[in-house]
Design goal:
363 residues; alpha+beta; D-Maltodextrin-Binding Protein, domain 2; 10-stranded mixed beta sheet; two-stranded antiparallel sheet; 21% helix
Amino acid sequence: MHKNTKLRLGAVASLAVAAIAFGALPAQADPTTPPFPTLAGVGSDTTQDVVGGLTTLAPTVVGSWNAVGSDPTITTITTKNGGLAFKRPNGSGDGVYALSMSAGAGTGIYNNVNILGQLDYARSSSPPVGSNSDLTYIPFATDAVSYAFNGASAFPTDVPLGDTTSDGTVAFTLRNIYNCRVTSFSDAGGNDVTIAPLLPQAGSGTRSYWEKQTGLDDTKLPTCVTDRNGSVEEHNGTALTGTGDIMPYSIAQYIAQGRHSAIITSTVVERRGNAVLGKVGSVSPFLMSGTTLTLNPSFPIKRPVYNVVQTSRLAEPAIASTFVGSMSTVCSAAGQTIIKSYGFAVASNCGVTSIVGSYRLAK
């Protein structure tokens, strides 16, 4: 049996045990019929499932619409009673942009539809931008990101991130791979295999985060890097079709997808395909806590994830009770249990309101 296949099967077995340990948790996403919940949220693919799970703690108060719908033929959503249908925001940047338009920033027009007042929060795996305090980014969990590769290939299972001192050398690092300085690896037979570094679609928080980690400028990507005309959806391992394909992948999403059969939900879809997550600098993405597979808090590439609201609305009862402070729905003991069941680590600063940024006027 191929060594990467063994690695994949071992991870799947651990995830199955983890699912039993956490039990079956119901979750909701994409409310489709009125009356809609008080708060409507869109955005990040990374956190769509965990936030969907958190909605079950207050189902009439908070609703969450996924980044990609279960039916690809339905491309629009309606979030408020009597509201206009608009294109589903896909990714952190797109979600915060839509929230900004809903708040009246810029034109208030999102994909040719006036969406004023149609959104109340955005899911984001990206930090704020700009120097204004229009939006408050409220942290609630911690994620980490590794590279995923095709488990049927002989791609190295441990690759360092690299840094500016190793950039441009022959060092086999993620930074050199994504800057097209290292373009191949040797398979089991000693043959050179061309590496195809993939990025998720535009508007993805994971895309922008990975670009920062690997030293890329989104406006002038190296020629070997591609999102295949926007067809590479983040955290979807079925994109890894070639033996040289690699892509960034949320460790929490990988864990949650492995638990999909135990988390009773229409939102967590097993979409890892043949993806295997690699170590970075000899640090594993996972730890075993008893019989439960968890995110390794020592993994070198980790990030906070947020729910974003208008700063001027922080004191509104529905927003405050859901997101603000350690006693909020999201940060409560029940919320923390759900957060961990979806593969995330709980943020030590869950519910703080000191992180602010400007409205976003484009993806």
